[in-house]
Amino acid sequence: MKRFIVFLSVFSLLACFAAAPALAADNIKVGAAFALSGSIAVYGEGFKKCVDLAVEEINAKGGIKGKKIEIVYEDNKSNPKDCVSAVRKLISVDRVPVIFGPAGSSNFMAAAPVAQESRVVMLSAQGTAEKLTQAGKYIFRIIPSNSKQGQRLAKLAFDQGYRRLPVMYINNDWGLDLKDGFVTSFRKMGGVVTDIIPFDEKKTDYRTELLRAAKGNPRAIVNLTYINEGAVQFKQAYELGIKTQWLCGSAARAPKMVELAGKAAEGVMGTYPSVPQDTKAYQAFKGAYKKKYGNDKIPIFGDYNYDMVYLSARAIEKGGYTAEGIRKALPAVSKGYYGVTGDKTFDRQRGMEKADIGIWIVKGGKIEDYKK
Q1: Model pLDDT, residue 249
Q2: pLDDT of amino acid 328
Q3: Nearest-5° angle of CA 101, CA 103, CA 106?
Q4: In which residue ranges of the chain is pLDDT below 70?
């Protein structure tokens, strides 16, 4: 009798294990290698909110052919080494056919070859470095690259009457890429770059770089920085009595940066891949975000991450739940598709075919579109 009971117990346990894959198959799993800890966790936290919102909306409407989307989050800990580990885990253990990639161009490009070699689709909704998609045909981005932003930033500086200025930039692929784009364009216009000053991520003191940039009291300083680094720099510049017009890129355009920097961020300007916020689609997204999270302060690049979910869902619906099917379907489903961030049509390099670059400014403690 005891043997019979043991046999039944083992049989039941095996049956449960056998049933597990079938249950998992009821959901469509998508990987997300986001920074949920570390120096740029502020980005990952915002991305996750907007991804979760999109998934909730799609699932409420029946999912993809009756199956619900499930996001498998893996913390990339804000550094290239752990980004690679996170992507490897999502591919080998979770066996997802598509991954929402890490923030930070350096982080993304470290992990992209892993996805390409494994023939798994990986998308970026925030990486703007020119080389981002060069890892191969499984790598996509749904945000404009740095080339146009660098050109627009140079034009902004010229339009504001600045002809001589120094450039500070975060020493990674994103910062180097945008710096090169700006410097080349600014010099072609006849501008003079008086100094080029790289700085490292995660520091708590940037006084040396700031004093070097402020030498000669330039009327403006280009600062290609991130959220946390920018907040520290603007506060320290304020404390040092440095009075200048700060000109930045898209990575500093975040309510969190303004919150951390306080009054020191007032007047900071920059360029960004512009999003038509007066559209019905964007207003609906903003309203849904406010309903779910209690405020309408959309996290930086959150809207692009929201679009990334919908675009991926369309590709899965059309191409099937395989990496090859998704890869082939993405260009087709993107053509003429307007998300909350505009036209998402891919070009031949699997980047955005169309890109509008706007100008932002911190005014009254809030980020607004700049108007002359």
Answers
A1: 95
A2: 98
A3: 95
A4: 1-25
Reading the block at residue 312, the tokens are 């991926």
Are 315 and 309 in contact by the 8 Å Cβ rule? The answer is: no
CA distances from 118 to 50, 73, 93, 312 (A): 27, 19, 13, 18
Tens digits of residue pLDDT in 241-295: 999 999 999 999 999 999 999 999 999 999 998 887 889 999 999 999 999 999 9
pLDDT of residue 331: 98
* Cα(110)–Cα(85) distance, integer angstroms: 10
Residues 369 and 239: their CA atoms lie apart, in Å, by: 27
Residues 6+ apart with CB under 8 A from 237: 210, 214, 244, 246, 264
Give yes or no for a contact between 127 and 34, defined as CB atoms under 8 angstroms apart: no
Q: What is the reported pLDDT for 224?
A: 98
User: What is this structure's pTM?
Assistant: 0.81
Tell me, what DSSP letter sits at residue 38? S
Of 134, 149, 146, 177, residue with least CA distance to 350 = 134
- Measured in degrees and rounded to the nearest 5, phi and psi for residue 214 equal -85, 0
To 5 degrees, how large is the angle CA 281–CA 251–CA 183? 120
pLDDT of 23-44, one tens digit each? 345 899 999 999 999 989 999 9
Q: CA 300 to CA 49: how far, in whole Å?
A: 11
Residues 339 and 301: beta-carbon distance below 8 Å:
no
Domains of the chain are 19-143+301-334 (3.40.50.2300), 147-273+358-369 (3.40.50.2300)
The contacts of residue 83 (CB under 8 Å, 6+ apart) are 33, 76, 102, 107, 108, 110, 111
Considering all CA atoms of the chain, what is the largest pairwise distance in Å, rounded to the nearest integer? 93
Tokens of 284: 């609906």
